[in-house]
């Protein structure tokens, strides 16, 4: 009996039939023929497991590598499970199209070049291709699930995808193959979780050599410098023993620009794993630290933006940043959690809550800072004799940082959810985001039961969210506008235009120090109310305008 075809849907809505049982052998033969040809040309075979935000671009960078005479030296197979949610990435990559949407035009170019011109990059759903690999690069996710809003201590690492991938690798690779974990992992994972899995799989297959396993984390910034942030950036690496350490050093020297951005080699994987976790926890902590001063500033007539700019004049303090409505992005909200969790669950210590005070607090503060934006919006509306319930509010900026389309864990999501819970009617505008999956597909994304939806009431209709591109139209009739992200398009908007487009004076909420003092003054002159995170001097401007 013919079985029903199942389709995997790309973000743009294109349907790709998910492979069936008989497709696997055909696929393996297709790849085997290409591998034989590549080997005959002297190329090394690299399999990249997971072609998401990091893996897809890393795979292209490896495929773009040339030897000393300028000839392509690697043949790369991006490998992805044929799950309903992710399979579409394979046929798209095989057409030379990037499965990740990026503001960096180099992403599309490098993928097209390697797939269609150099023919050094393909994608496959069949993990049997691992048997062809000289090097396997692991770029699957390792998440940290939080169960309570504002309490990361009850959360746990979700290593299922990573463990499954490592197990598959152990069952398929040749003994000489180097496995390089690039995934951000809980410290200890490479040596104490992944290595034993590989060793066990080798033993089962009667292989008596030690699996070659290394770790080197990614520092990619999906944005305008996406490709460069992988290729032209400092890397840290380590191996489980000397041979793997030498292997990973050699590989990274070949594929990355280590001449201008030297490689740091650590003795043990736990050191390179910890480097990543401390690096991101440090960043999350200095952002969270600013939250208390932001509140102080709001209540005491101080503009924290000016304070930060004044401090940054000192070269020793030049990396101070304003936190906006939380932190967001895939890494900063979770990485400290992986460290806290590993201390107990991988490394076996029971005193985690005595040792870890700052990292969990920082994450909790960052995770909940956006709720204050809802309070500011409510108060600004109240000062204009409007209620938040039923108010038409436009949120400008859905992504987690300026001038990117990445919405993962963005503070804006928390703002929207809280305001919707309070009864507001929200419209979204963002020049970089076409679909806000965290809202549109909140019942499945990031995975069933894991949406922030579960922390709020009245969220059901958010699946109907569309992201608007025409700001004047979006603002028509608005009672409040929230500037949540400092996208370029929002930096020089004129208050007169905003009020004209809205058709009435409105509440204006600035989450990122976007408004100049002149703009704030003008909004007040036009009869608007202005509130902002960390900007207490607004009250002074308001009094001056009222007095004048
Ligand atoms: N995105 C960033 O900005 C960034 C920056 C630095 C580090 N990292 C780290 O890089 C890692 C990967 O992140 P990402 O953003 O690429 O995640 P992602 O979710 O975009 O990609 C992971 C991919 O792996 C696939 N996958 C899962 N299980 C698999 C399996 N068993 N076999 C094959 N494929 C499988 C998923 O379907 C997905 O396509 C994470 O550890 C992350 O913390 C990400």
Tell me the strand percentage band.
Answer: 5-15%
Helix content: 40-55%
Q: How many alpha or pi helices? A: 21
User: Within the largest sheet, what's the order of strands?
Assistant: 5-4-3-6-9-10-11-12
Q: Could you tell me the mean pLDDT? A: 96
Radius of gyration: 25 Å
Residue windows where pLDDT falls under 50 for at least 5 positions = none
The gross shape turns out to be globular
How many angstroms separate the termini?
Answer: 82 Å
Alpha-beta classification? alpha/beta
Bound small molecules, by name, code or SMILES, are: nicotinamide-adenine-dinucleotide
3D structure, described in words:
The protein has 548 residues and is of the alpha/beta class. 41% of the residues lie in helices and 13% in strands. It has 21 helices and 18 strands. The protein has helices at 23-40, 55-63, 89-94, 105-117, 160-172, 189-204, 226-231, 242-255, 269-299, 304-312, 335-345, 352-355, 358-368, 371-383, 411-421, 437-440, 471-475, 488-491, 495-502, 517-525, 538-547, and strands at residues 7-9, 15-17, 44-49, 74-79, 121-124, 135-138, 143-145, 156-158, 178-181, 212-215, 236-239, 264-265, 392-396, 425-429, 467-468, 480-483, 507-510, 529-532. α5 (160-172) packs parallel to α6 (189-204) and α20 packs across α21. 49% of the residues are buried. The protein binds nicotinamide-adenine-dinucleotide (NAD). The site of nicotinamide-adenine-dinucleotide (NAD) has 26 residues, from α5.
